[in-house]
Structure prediction request, 960 residues.
Amino acid sequence: MTGRRFLARRLGFYAAAVWSAVTLNFLIPRLMPGDPSLAIIEELERVSGQSLPPRTLESIQRLFGDPSANLGAQYLDYLGQLARLDLGVSIRNFPTPVSDLVWQGLPWTLLLVGSTTVVAFLVGTGLGVIAGWRAGGRFDSIVSPLTTFVSSVPYFWVALLALWAFGFLLGWFPLAGGYDPDLPVGLNAPFVLSVLHYGALPAATIVFSAFGGWLLGMRNMTVTTVREDYVLLALAKGLSPRRVMLRYAARNAMLPNFTGFALALGGVVGGALLTEIVFSYPGIGYLLFISLQQRDYPVMQGVFFLLTLTVLLANLAADSVYALLDPRIRERA
Amino acid sequence: MKVRAGSAIIAFFALVAIFGGWFSETVLGLDPRANDIQAIAQPPSGEHLLGTTQFGQDVLAQVIAGASGSMFVGFLAAAIGTALAVLVGVTAGYFGGGVDGVLNFLTNLFLVMPVLPLIFVVAGYLQGTGLWTIALIIGLFGWAGGARTLRAQAMSVAGRDFVRAMRLLGESNRRLVFFEVLPHLTGLIASMFLHALIGAVLAEAGLAFLGISDSAAISWGTMIQAAQQQSAVLRGLWWWFVPPGLCIALIGTAAALVNFGVDEVANPKLRVVRTRRRRIARSEAA
Amino acid sequence: MTSQTQEHAPATPAAHRAVLRVDGLSVEYAGEVRACVDVSFTLRRGEILGVAGESGSGKSTLITALTRLQRPPAVTTAGRILYHGRDGGPPVDLVTLDDKALRDLRWTSLSIVLQSAMDALNPVLRLGAQFADALRAHDRRMSKKEAWQRAAELLAMVGISADRVRGYPHQLSGGMRQRAAIALALACRPDLVVMDEPTTAVDVVMQRQILSQVLRLRDELGFAVVFVTHDLSLLLEVADRIAIMYAGRIVEIGTARALYTGPKHPYTQGLRDSFPPLHAPLRPLSGIPGSPPDLRRPPPGCAFHPRCPERFDGCDRILPELVPAAGHEVACLLYPAGGDR
Prediction:
């Protein structure tokens, strides 16, 4: 089947993308003015009040540059270190390894961003079909302009407003954190409930900010698709309008929305990271914020690296769904 | 209609950005940086129309000053990003072949990368730098979407018979690109610029919110960040963080309106017929 | 007014009963353009009526009006489309029929074949699913398996191997797709199939094959056809009767033979002489000078008069009515009402 060939090509592209991300991560600190390695080492020695063990020194130089070694050799060393999943140590939480910090935050972010992205995609796509099916109708003329406004509002500002209204004024939701700190962490009912309670408001604001983009995209695609002959023929067949809308119009209009997934995901992730900051949510967005404030370069790079891998993986998943939905992909690929 | 309303809003903010500082100083007699010890964190009143911050600064004066900061970054970053998009997209689309292979890969790479976090990290290394650098970084990483669209369009223009014929006749590529291909893409490039403008305003706000910005500069992002830092939410100082966010949203909506209008002109399929289906009365037919 | 005269044929045998009577149908676009004006004709069971005209003659508008598939700017402003069911009950007016009743009538009584099957078949659904959709919408008791089985039979009926039922539209050749679209239109055994240029998208050889298939299936299944095309020579091959449209009106209607051997309207004559016949020996070809009128500002009087080689005083003032003339009907001042020339 040539559907596999399409996926194989995409897989090849993503492999190249991962390699590029790794290389970018390698180059960024080395291209920056000054010597980040030296700055990190000095900072670490100041914070810990002792000189660093040679192993730590070496690890830092591998990650952030060693002016005395040539770039090629550095690159190989860097790849070797990444292969061992060694992302260095945090400056502020010395000597906690960066990977520990990131692994702690990643599940929270995956939970929050993953679930809200799926929900926003479904809600936006669903409403977009309805708006586009009766373009110019009452629903469309109210919802579409409103959505245009909503989708141009910064995520973190929506988060601030929500926190002010529902957390501060109404007191329905807690003001900060991802779970009730007084409860024992684990898979027990009170803790899970507290996670849901704490996560509800951040999740709602992300869905609110993100669904508009999907809605507008889907609306425009539906408006175009509704004029296709196969939709006309489906109506002529005497199918119920609901069935025509879902199986004929929406099914086809959705395909470009999947290719647009990649474009939008980066923005959603960026916005969601900022939302985490507003709610002091224990994910990697908040971690990134703390590390930026404290100039904790190793953590900063570690977060970016893992974030990139995750986003690339999500894109690959979207591509796979696309290949499943469109039989013509086999010929086109 | 949409285009006109959107352009008017953008023009208004551009005017505020350019002349607002002079206006608030001479006409309103306000200084965005002055601290009024008498009025700390006051809600909107006759004296301070939009209230004051925790530091006793006038919010209205700050919003006006913030317009020039945000719009400066927006315009500069959008100019850089659009220029790069044209350079990469048109070159790839026009020349095709190996050049296209490399440039297209680069474009797709930046499309799937989480660009906003990338900007955060790079800017993180350059903390404390001015708005110029921030605009530069945003522009440098934010061109991929535009390049993809332009590549496709340039490809179709370059494939038209008259361009092909002129190429065969030995017309120079540079001339063809500048006099045949680019003029066909001006509408698209303009709409792209607006996209980039709102993207950059949002990115700058995000960066400022993360604490990465010129500590001396005032932009809508730095205002929201200062409000967040001073726990404005927990003190209920809504007048501090609502106006700057609203301004960003207005610019975004305006840009979206213009692009909607442009889309409808470029793609007639999107034009919606407003006439409702008239159910003809029996009396009318009989 | 004019059609009223031929509407009294109640006791004729079943084969001659009408399936469709169109009476004074007018369609406008946003109240500005009158794309169909006062169109009347009767279609008998099992009859193939060809409708020919240049682009802009209103023939496509007629199709969407007949099938009630028209979209917003187009509005039916006058007239009736009376459909006579198999059961011999009172006819229903398709123009005013409510959505639910119309949906029940679709495909079981009235189906359509669109110009390009490539565009008319859903690209992401298997062929069988598109047949099963229609079959199961009108027969709730039919199982999925039965529906797919029936789909395979229908495909076999037009010479497509049954295993194609699991294929996607893009996997078929152009001719196969078009035949599949015809098989799809016959899925629920309709009385009437409207065909919109069903053979424009295929080559000449395939065109002939499809036409003979349509004729064979009509003989087997007994459905009536409204066959719309710009190609008059094609209609001479398949149609029993032919209607010629110009500027939204029927200007001549009669049997295919009568129209071919003795066209009355100057426009019909011009149309006939601008196509090579498929079978007859070649005649010198000539086109019709000028171009179709702008329907926003149709010429006064007979709309054809600016291009007419035989126009005379009065053509630009008096609107000719459709009147009987030598076995068929024509709307031209050369043939005044009552005077049988």
